[in-house]
Amino acid sequence: MRVMKWSMIALAVSASVSQFAVASSQEESKGFFEDQSLNVLSRALYMNRDWKNNDSDEQSYREEAGLGVRATYESGFTQGTVGVGVDAFAFGSARFDGSAGRAGNGLFAQDSDGDLEHTQSKAGGAVKFRLSDTVLKYGNQVVASPVFSTDDSRLLPEVATGTLITSKEIKGLELSAGRFTSLSSQTGMGRDSINGRDSATGIRNPGLTSANIAGATYQFTDNFVAGVAASDVEDYFKKKYINLNYTLPINEDQSLNFDFNGYDSEDQGRKLSGDIDNRIWSLAAAYAIGAHKFTVAHQRSTGDTGYLYGVDGNGTIFLANSIQYSDFNNEDERSWQARYDLNMKTYGVPGLSFMTRYVRGDNITVGDDTDNKEHELDFETKYVMQSGPAKDLSFRVRSAFYRGSDGVGRDNNDFRFIVEYPLSIL
Predict the structure, then answer these.
(1) What pLDDT is recorded for position 189?
(2) Which helix (H) or strand (E) segment is 166 a member of?
(3) In whole angstroms, how large is the CA radius of gyration of the chain?
């Protein structure tokens, strides 16, 4: 499940607009080595899930801990009309704790005997070309499209293989198109490891066949951005997506933000994920005043099935009520959220933040029963070192308490402790 990703498009476009200049990016290229970078991110993660009121034949407790280290190299582009560059990565993870009897949180793969792997590693790369402000990249890459998004919620991220074109030729407008033919899971070291039994339908599928995607975002004003995207995942489904994000400044210390996200999905071809017929949307309103932010959100699912994702990346759910454990995306589900964020910088403790939220869903259809419910309460605390040799070292605690009707979800307490340290070498 995903932490909320709503407003990502707005943030990305705002950042890119601020970097536009009269000259194109390629004209300002300093060179292959001159613009290169090498970054290393270390992430230690402890995670347990404790299910309540389980049947005796179901696993009731999962606990794993480990360290993931990822090195990412990005070259600059060669000078000239068409710039050429390469990106490369090397990922590795090591298990601290966990056993076959407590496995299943998605930190490590299991071997043929059911035991968790002690270490895992994978590496890859991509070649890239730039003409003016348009970049074509082919190879292994992480992707953050609302209709095809690689997940990074455990030790190592998913990695897609394919081609992606991103163009920023017009100020404020970003266009993208791509085709991906394989997807490596967070615990899978091979290129095609997103497969197995679908968690929503119970149907076993062969993994990603191919996914064609396209998208556009446009910054209409400093405060309003809109985006659309579409995907065609061969023999699975087609999706269309829309995002509208508007911020209303009140004064220097206060603002209102409105964020709308919506998907329309339908099955196609061999229907490898079963029948899919869904429309789902969310609307979130956030009021920020000083160190405080108050958010309310409503999300609604309609159609003959719930919203489905996974074979197109386990991050492909840009909805307000997709939170730590549940996504609240079942058939006919209606859900409401109340959230509070606190930034302690205002109170003299920079780097320390708190968050809590509560989401309740009802009207869920399971078979002939249309009166199913679920709810989740989350707490999160994070601290980031602000200076010294450990600057940017962060500590994060996440807790989720989930309860659902029979057939909707298993009652569960989800706890995670995350330590991250980013290091820039070049």
Answers:
(1) 74
(2) strand 159-167
(3) 22
For the chain, report the end-to-end CA distance as a whole number of angstroms.
Answer: 33
Task: Please list, in sequence order, all residues whose beta carbon lies within 8 angstroms of the beta carbon of residue 372, skipping any fewer than 6 positions away.
Answer: 330, 362, 363, 364, 365, 366, 404, 405, 406, 407, 408
Quote the pLDDT of residue 406: 85
Q: Find residue 86's DSSP bridge partners.
A: 127
Q: How crowded is the C-beta side of 98, counted as CA atoms within 13 Å?
A: 28
Q: Are 108 and 120 a contacting pair, CB within 8 Å?
A: yes
Question: How far apart, in whole angstroms, are the C-alpha atoms of residue 283 and residue 296?
Answer: 8
* pLDDT of amino acid 238: 98
- The answer to whether 255 and 288 have CB atoms below 8 angstroms apart is yes
DSSP state of 156: S
Q: How far is CA 239 from CA 176, 294, 325, in A?
A: 16, 31, 23
Burial class (CB in 10 A: 0-12, 13-18, 19+), 229: buried
The 10s digit of each residue's pLDDT in 389-399 is 999 999 999 99
Counting as low any pLDDT under 50, the low residues of the chain are 3-21, 196-197, 199
Rounded Cα gap, residues 326 and 316, in angstroms: 14
Query: The pTM is what?
Result: 0.91
pLDDT at 198: 52
Strand partners, 382: 353, 396
Find the helix or strand (DSSP H, E) in which 18 lies: helix 8-18
- Residue 71 CA, chain-centre distance (Å), reads 20
- Contacts of residue 190, Cβ cutoff 8 Å, sequence gap at least 6: 184
